[in-house]
Design goal:
2 copies of one chain form a homodimer. By secondary structure, chain A is of the alpha/beta class. The first copy, chain A, is built from 13 helices and 11 strands. The termini of chain A are far apart. The structure holds a DNA duplex.
Amino acid sequence: MSSSSSPRTKKPSTSKRKNVSAQRAPVGTENKIDIRVVAARAGVSIATVSRAINHVPTVDPALAERVWQVVGELNYFPNTQARALVSGRSRLLGLIVSEITNPFFPELIQEFEQVAVERGYEILIASTNYERKKMESCTRRMLERKVDGVAVMTFGIEEFFFDRFAADKIPVVFIDAAPLRPLSGFLAVDYRAGIYEAVQHLAVLGHRKIGFIAGPLRLRSAAARKAAFVECMRSIGLTSHQDWLVEGDHTLEGGRDAMQKLLALPDQPTAVLCSNDMTAIGVQHALFEADLKVPDDLSLIGFDDIHLAEYTIPPLTTVRMSCKDLALRAVNLLMEQLQPESAKAKAAHPKIETKLVVRQTTGLPRGALKDLAAGKNVKTRG
Amino acid sequence: MSSSSSPRTKKPSTSKRKNVSAQRAPVGTENKIDIRVVAARAGVSIATVSRAINHVPTVDPALAERVWQVVGELNYFPNTQARALVSGRSRLLGLIVSEITNPFFPELIQEFEQVAVERGYEILIASTNYERKKMESCTRRMLERKVDGVAVMTFGIEEFFFDRFAADKIPVVFIDAAPLRPLSGFLAVDYRAGIYEAVQHLAVLGHRKIGFIAGPLRLRSAAARKAAFVECMRSIGLTSHQDWLVEGDHTLEGGRDAMQKLLALPDQPTAVLCSNDMTAIGVQHALFEADLKVPDDLSLIGFDDIHLAEYTIPPLTTVRMSCKDLALRAVNLLMEQLQPESAKAKAAHPKIETKLVVRQTTGLPRGALKDLAAGKNVKTRG
DNA sequence: CTGAAAGCGCTAACAA
DNA sequence: TTGTTAGCGCTTTCAG
């Protein structure tokens, strides 16, 4: 059709209404602007509006321009539901974390959200709290909302998740490892680099008896961190007493409890590495309760470098893992699977780096020069 | 139609396909089960399936039963997008927080999520980071996704938000205050109760010179907390030096900086109350840097009682505000607006309570007995 | 109480 | 290149 000249008056073309099979006027529908209104106002068909909005390249630039102008005037935005229904893509990304109350995750979420929104995606967050039941429920929620992809940032690949999503052909990215199947990818983290630095740092200070408080070992990432620790110790010529390798759960409580176990040992480590910062903060607390000082009585190193690490007392020496990188890469990986055609060249995926950040929880071990003079002794708790 | 008898074999009724105007077989469509499949299998119309699923009371119980059974067998769940498109309700709730990296919010989010999911809603989270621009973008995101309601937990009512949402008749709940208009509500928090306890606690310990580090005062809630403090001081017969009332921003950095300002004062308070826990943790850090001890050199009280408060060194005395209550009440309030018919009786809405939790950051002021003996002195930083 | 049919607002064939 | 049109899967009148 094309009413050759575009309307030059701003007044909303008053006689506008449902053009198709409209017997009765819609009730209560005030000024809902939909694609039809835009089309009419721009003097084109709804198909053209749709194409213009979706940047289909075959649209006449002049028309596209006119459409966009009307879109601006009317402040129109497409109905996401309708779009999703017909296109099958929801532009929703799932983000599954293990525990939203662990400060590392909000930091990750923030970055993830930003990147996703930039790319036009909304995110659906779910927290598993390490509970099987929650995992099921949040998987179902994601499925129901028809997310286009899911980032499983629980630091543990749960076959569980994958199978459900695979059935619906929904791309999934994990951390550290993923099933070798299409539509799944993973982000590799170079735990060794940072942990090696940490162990070496302690060794240089004179520590030989170094303990490690792991995360829940059924999580791959937690196991990987522990493995990295053991390996680094060995490569440096140190061996860690079995008793000094204790399993925590990445929470404050877990850190506290684990440290209390360590304190009950007859032969205690002089330094402890933790699988994450929350664990380390829990350790600090246990030490505080036992009236022990960091780093005088025990050197402590965390992992993650959450913002708070700079503010603990004393400020926590820790291994930094950039959650910004993690988030960005996770989204990118998802995008790659969503738009395989995109010439984004599937850029190489180097490992996510980790590096030591020295603050004030590490120092000379007990028994070192300063203590020999003072003849300091350690209290342990029964 | 109605193939009178329900199929007794489990095998997917093979000849099933699009029943309406199906010229070509859908390509690649494997085993997508939609309402039609369920209807066919249950031997009823899709309308009945819809009604059964939505618990419309007029459905024959026997039929409903049959439908539900098939739903179970097929593991069917309705397509959210389609449902949203036609019904106009997305079953999506927006949750706007000021800063997701402030641990208080993840705790709130967790509770909110749980309640919302229980009620069949999904939540869309957005963090404003106190930036105007972000507020706009997240408002738009909520509008685009057609949320059914929004909880603005930024602790500051931004007319901004309300106007945009009001235009689309989307219910909004705020904290502390809301515009007097339909489709908006607010949660009242009884700041005074907890703050009064806190001030009194300090007074009893012997503190007279009590400072307050506020949040960003353009946030109503921050202003309310400060006002409560000033009022409590007065009612107890104390006055706070103007210099001791400093504005922070609810972040670690803000707390640290504010404390540094306080430390630069010739006449310093012996105790400080903070508008939130993060501020207090920042204060602890500033004190640590200045080589001052809590509570020996300064008594400190936070607000919120985030989980971490129990783990600071020393553990933080703080005023608890239950984020569980907050979340529950926010969702309920939203529900009330969404289903005005619901006989939920619009239960009374008592204020959210706050109460003091004494831990270890409060003690006798400097100058009290213990220090007189020691002749302790304070270092301040220039 | 149940079924047939009309769309919700949009995208994607297919035609022109 | 643009317009027409058929649905996406569901809820909801409106008849029966």
